[in-house]
Amino acid sequence: MYDQVDGICPLCAKPLMYDKTKKEKVFEIAHIYPLNPTPSELVLLKDEEVLSTDLNHIDNLILLCPTCHTKFDKPRTVAEYKKLLALKKRLIHKNKVYGQFNAYKIEEEINVVLEMLVSEVPSDLEENKLKYDALRVSEKADNTLTALTRRDIENDVVDYFITIKQRFVDLNKSRTGSFDLLSSQVKTFYTELKVSGISQEDIFDGIIEWFNKKTNNHSRPACRIIASFFVQNCEVLS
Q1: Using one digit for the tens of pLDDT, what is the confidence trace for 146-186?
Q2: Strand, helix or coil at 104?
Q3: Cα distances (Å, whole numbers) of residue 155 to 116, 141, 144, 149, 167
Q4: Cβ-Cβ contacts under 8 Å for 176 (sequence gap 6 or more)
Q5: DSSP assigned state of 45
Q6: Mean predicted confidence (pLDDT) in 197-225
Q7: Contact in structure between 64 and 11 (CB atoms under 8 Å)
Q8: Phi and psi, residue 63, nearest 5°
Q9: Mean pLDDT for the stretch of residues 105-117
Q10: Radius of gyration of the chain (CA)
Q11: How far apart are CA 235 and CA 238, in angstroms?
């Protein structure tokens, strides 16, 4: 459950662990639907969705900081219940989808490009900037992709698309077909995320996280730049 919320309280974003002489927890396990509902809670939640008939099942549990746990429980309200239930459903769905990372391979060439992005500023970066009118992001994005993420993609594409494309072309010369294979792998994983019904925001984040996990947490910002490349190249959000 700790990994499911990325180590932060999903309601206030406070860290759920701190370092002292050792890792100390500052979280509590909250029941979304109360384990022992009071008569008033039974009435209050009688028409609300419950994620598991076993109230101690992980689907009905979520980690919260002590403050948010107390606020959620006392007093319990329908609005806060619906909010936390919806959040938990999203986490369940997201983790189920992202749990498929190991089933999808990724070509070694992506590590070469990541290393280039992390270790140096490419000498041809400035001259290879893409003209803004060449972008296709606005044509692909729907209202589930946040404005901030859209801006990140557009900036990454303008700054890096041509340079990354050339690096992949060079790598393809030494191993013919490697870029086509990589593109196919990205497209397949994207399609898997898309058919799961998650938002474009979560799809883009999932592609980044897949790159990151498959390259041993090489560099998340660099993985985002490559994910943006594949948006422009039509493997992602197409």
Answers
A1: 999 999 998 898 888 888 888 888 888 888 888 888 899 88
A2: coil
A3: 18, 15, 19, 10, 19
A4: none
A5: T
A6: 86
A7: yes
A8: -85, 130
A9: 80
A10: 22
A11: 6
Report the predicted TM-score, pTM, of the whole model to 2 decimal places: 0.69
Q: What angle separates helix 200-214 from helix 109-119, to the nearest 10 degrees?
A: 90
The percentage of the chain sitting over the pLDDT mark of 90, rounded to a whole number, equals 35
Go through 17-47 and write b for each residue having 16 or more CB atoms within 10 A of its CB, e for each that does not: eeeeeeeeeebbebbbbbeebeeebeebbee
Instruction: State the Cα–Cα distance between residues 26 and 162, nearest whole angstrom.
Output: 46
Q: For residues 198 and 127, what is the distance between their CA atoms, to the nearest angstrom?
A: 37
The torsion defined by the Cα of 68, 94, 140 and 161, in degrees rounded to 10, comes to 100
Token pair of 16, please?
């759920």
C-alpha 70/C-alpha 42 separation (Å) is 19
Token representation of residue 2:
């700790």
Give the closest residue to 4 by CA, choosing from 65, 85, 71, 59: 59
DSSP-derived pairing of the beta strands 23-25 and 28-31: unpaired
Rounded CA-CA distance 35/53 in Å is 11
Q: What is the mean pLDDT of residues 112-130?
A: 68
**On the CB side of 205, how many CA atoms lie within 13 Å of its CA?**
14
E strand or H helix at 53: none
Give the residue among 89, 219, 227 at the shortest CA–CA distance from 149.
Answer: 227
Grouping H, G, I as helix, E, B as strand and the rest as coil, residue 219 is coil
Tokens of residue 4, six digits? 């499911």
Q: What is the pLDDT of residue 17?
A: 87
Q: What is the mean pLDDT of residues 108-129?
A: 71
